[in-house]
Each structure stands twice: as structure tokens, then as C-alpha cells.
From TrEMBL:
<keyword id="KW-0732">Signal</keyword>
<feature type="signal peptide">
    <location>
        <begin position="1"/>
        <end position="21"/>
    </location>
</feature>
<dbReference type="InterPro" id="IPR051781">
    <property type="entry name" value="Metallo-dep_Hydrolase"/>
</dbReference>
<dbReference type="InterPro" id="IPR006680">
    <property type="entry name" value="Amidohydro-rel"/>
</dbReference>
<feature type="domain" description="NADH:ubiquinone oxidoreductase intermediate-associated protein 30">
    <location>
        <begin position="458"/>
        <end position="566"/>
    </location>
</feature>
<dbReference type="InterPro" id="IPR032466">
    <property type="entry name" value="Metal_Hydrolase"/>
</dbReference>
<dbReference type="Pfam" id="PF01979">
    <property type="entry name" value="Amidohydro_1"/>
</dbReference>
<dbReference type="Pfam" id="PF08547">
    <property type="entry name" value="CIA30"/>
</dbReference>
<dbReference type="InterPro" id="IPR011059">
    <property type="entry name" value="Metal-dep_hydrolase_composite"/>
</dbReference>
<dbReference type="InterPro" id="IPR013857">
    <property type="entry name" value="NADH-UbQ_OxRdtase-assoc_prot30"/>
</dbReference>
<dbReference type="InterPro" id="IPR008979">
    <property type="entry name" value="Galactose-bd-like_sf"/>
</dbReference>
<feature type="domain" description="Amidohydrolase-related">
    <location>
        <begin position="73"/>
        <end position="412"/>
    </location>
</feature>
<dbReference type="GO" id="GO:0016810">
    <property type="term" value="F:hydrolase activity, acting on carbon-nitrogen (but not peptide) bonds"/>
</dbReference>
<protein>
    <submittedName>
        <fullName>Amidohydrolase family protein</fullName>
    </submittedName>
</protein>
<keyword id="KW-0378">Hydrolase</keyword>
Amino acid sequence: MQMFRKLLIAASLASALPAMAAETILIKDVRVFDGHKVHAQRSVLLQGGKIASADFKGKAPAGAKVVEGAGRTLLPGLIDSHVHAYRFPDLPLLFGVTTQVDMFMPVAAMQDVQRRMAKGENQASTDIFSAGMLATAPGGHGAEYGIPVPTLTTPGEAQAWVDARIAEGSNFIKIIVESGGVGTRKFNSLDMPTVKALVDAAHKRGKLAVVHISTLEDARAALETGADGLVHLFTGDAIGDADLKALVKLARERKAFVIPTFSVMESIAGLREKDVIEDKALASLLDKEQMMTLHSSYGSEPKPQRLTAPNAVVAALHKAGVPVLAGTDAGNAGTQYGASMHHEMLSMTKAGMSPLAVLAAATSAPAKAFRLGQRGQVAKGYKADLVLVEGDPTTDILATRRIVEVWKDGEPVSPARAKKQEQVAQELSRKSVPLALPADGRISLFSKDKLASPFGTGWMPSNDAFLGGKSTVKVEYADEAAVSVQASVQPGFAFPWAGLAFIPGSGPMAAADLSNAKVLRFRVKGDGKRYAVAIMSKAGSIPVNVPFEAGADWQEVSLPLAGFKGVDTSTITMIGFNAGPQPGDYQFQIADVRLMPQ
């Protein structure tokens, strides 16, 4: 969570390249998907960062760069309709995603990218249209990330809340309807009268109102309020025919759009984007940290049956003519900016949409739904945000991955793609030097004077206070080189915790290569309650937890590091021994913590 907070801040500090005059480019004799239909052969002229002609005739203008299009397809730049753009602002472009619709970001970061876009200085990054702050209840989903979120509880607060977001620069209003949670932690949620008041307030100011949901019941209730779109679907092993027909009928009658976000639903179902991970061309643009995020997932084990319901809903929505938009929810475990868009489009075809329909769902449809102006089509006067690929993605959606060139505001992205590929290749060629572990593996050198360690920053108390939580912890030397941990875990953060942490790197969030270690061993005793070892590596925004119990008598716990799924042991930033998330008072003693080679 600390990494998430720092990266949110870092997003607002992204540097911008100065504006430059785009060269004249003629893409000659190319198959064109214009956002709606296919043209077998056209030539497209780009001038001044715009499409000067979508069907150019005659000789190339003097000085124009000519790009041969035979055997290739030109597409509008892809639009990811659901992201959380707090990291890697230049990464989506490398995969042909030229615009992102962001569902929650700090106001300063949103305003920064808006300034760059207004000045024409955003060629090196995707354009972003954002909700800024989201509408949620106190203790609701979205308020758990350690940044201040303005909440509300009653319909009477809705107009002032919406007006404040518009004054900050929000392009649309996002509303959270979510009473679910993780484990014993449940979120508070806005009631439907307040949701309807927010929708009405947004519409009164000419803004779209979209709703986050995670159940069929909430989806129907949100549409009943007049929401313009659902920014998720819901997982489920099945959906009844009557429920399916009723939901589709309601969405069609309300003229709403739906963003399924298969990429994150699959992560929740314990599935990984193997098609992306194993694609050499896509992987060549992802460094180790970015790849590790794709190797993670929210679900602990694969449950593909959980995709039965959303697959059926998408097929029925599309058949009924309800706009279905491509969006990944990138920024979450199991997703990656840009790369996941290609997986999302594949998943949409597996749900029953044709490649042609999916391409529209990733270009012209989101541009229309979110009122994004002259983008999402290959048409005269539109932004020269384009993707050139080998083959024909209108019949084979996998062809979107065979990228020849990407243009952002008429500027080619190929130099940035080549640079990133070189960086990734160099990273792969470098051999990491793992830290030499102590001969006995012991990393806890506890004494009355100091909680020492043989390397790294060392041991320290840890709790959720820096993320706005209310949990507290007291760590004291006990005896026999043991420490006593007294924790009070309190509500106030989505995943409250308190405990003891070992920082193996040179500072907070600095990574240490502990790949020589295969097993974590320690001795523990306590109050008989359930605890967790939490390990975080550089690629993860949240730690991976494995439970243990602290009984009345000393016992040795041995945990294989391979059991911490998604953790890269060569980039470990923290090993914690935590109480929580169940609120209450906890007490345990821990000693003889070792990292062992076997």
C-alpha cells in the first residue's frame, strides 16, 4: 500500500516533452478500419498532428514520409475505457493505447495531464480523461488507499459534491456501489437515493455519471437510477435466463453502456493473462517489474467458471445493441497498462463479439460514449492517434499485437518502442547478484539494546497509520532473543494491520535480492490467534499473505517462499509478521527468524 501511495504522488510529477511540429506522413495503400467499417485499400495523409485526409488520392506531398501499407491494417489509436493511471504514463503508447479513461486519480495528477494535453505537450504519454475523485461512502471502496477522498452519505450532499469535482476538472462522475470486501472486512456503500441524486446532479451539469458495481442486483439498481454506464460487470458461475433478459432490457431502455473489464474479473477468478505473458513481442516491451504484475492475481486458485455469467451478459448485451466498451481496469493485480488491452479484446471475442465489433469497442465506441472529441476514428480532422499492424485484425483480433508503428499526435512511437525493447533486453542479460545469507540464515539479531539484522534497514514496528488507519503496535524485547508484539487492530483502513516488519533493502521500498532463500523459518508463541506473514516485492502494490497461528507454546513455523504467489524473491522490499485484518487486540512473541536455502 505504501508503494501505491508513492506512485500516486509520482504520477503527478510526470515530465512532459516540449511540443514539436509533427511531420507530414502518407500511409500508402493500406487496409483501413476507420472505427466503424473496413476499407480494403486507402492512403491516409497525416499533417500537423491531424488526419488531413482519410482517403488521399494522387502523389505524396513534397517532403512527406511514405509508409507502405500493403498487407497491413491502419486502426484508430486504442482507447482503454477503464484504468487507474497512477503508473507508467508512457507504457500504454508502446502497445497502441493512445487514450485512457481513468476512473480514480489524485486531483493534482489529473490537472497536470490536462495542462499538458491543452498545450499540445503530451506526445510522449497517453491522453487521459478522468473522473478524478470518486463518489463513495465513509469507509467505502476507494477510500482505503491512504489518500484523502471526499465522501458523502445523503442525497442532499450530492449537488455540492458533484460541483466540487467539476471545479477540480473531473471529466465525468464515477460513483461506487460496493458493499463487498475481502475476508471479514466489508465496505460501506452509498444508498440508492444518494446514487440517484449524484446521477441527477451530474446530468444537471451536463456530465456523465458511471457506476462501479460487482453484483447483478447492484447493476440493475444502478441502471434504474439513470446512470450512463456500468464500469464493471460481475463474476458468477451462472446467470438465470430471466435475470439476463431483464438486465439487458434495462440497459437497452436506459441507453447505457457497459465496460465488462474481463482483465480484472479474470484476475479475481485466479486466472492470468498467459497469452500476453507468453507473447514474445508483447513481453519484449515489459520490464521485470511490469511482467511480475501480470504474474499476480487476486484469486488464489483458478476458477474459470466464474466467467460464465459475464460472458453470457456480454454476448446478450452485444446482440441487443447495447454499447460494450473495452476496458482493462489496469493498475490492478494481473493487469498491465497497454498490454492488457490486447488481452481484453481477445476475451471479448471469446465472449461472442466479432473482431470488428471489438475493434469498435476499443476505438469509436468509447470515444462516443465518453464524449472524447475527435479521436477513435480514422477521419479527416481527427487526431493522428493511429496504430499500424501487420495482417487483418478485423478477422483475427490477435493481429493487433503485430504492431508496425504507433502515432500519437502524428508523432511516431517506434523510437520509444525500440528504446524500451533495448532496456528490457539489457535487463534480461544482466545477472542479478543475490545477497549472501548468513551462515545460519538468521536475520533476527534481537537484544535489549537493538532489534538488529545482518543486512538491510532492519526491523521496525509496522501498522496502517501512514495510510490513514487507526491500528497501533508496541514492540519490546522479551527474552531469549525474542521480541513481544502487542497489536491493536482497529477499523479505519480497508485492510487494517499491525505487527513487526523486516526491511531487507537499503531503505523503505528499496529491493533486496533474496533469491538465495527458499524457506522462511521462525519460532513463535502467543494468544492462539491467527496471524500472517506478509511479503512484498517491487512489482507488487500489495503484499502477499500466508497465515500462521501463535499458540501458547513455542513452535517453529516453516514457510516455503514459493508459496507466496506473485512475489519476486529477487526484489523483496518487506517481510512482515502481522495481526489483522480482524479488529481486536493481539499479542505474540517471535524469535529466531531465518532465511534458509532449503
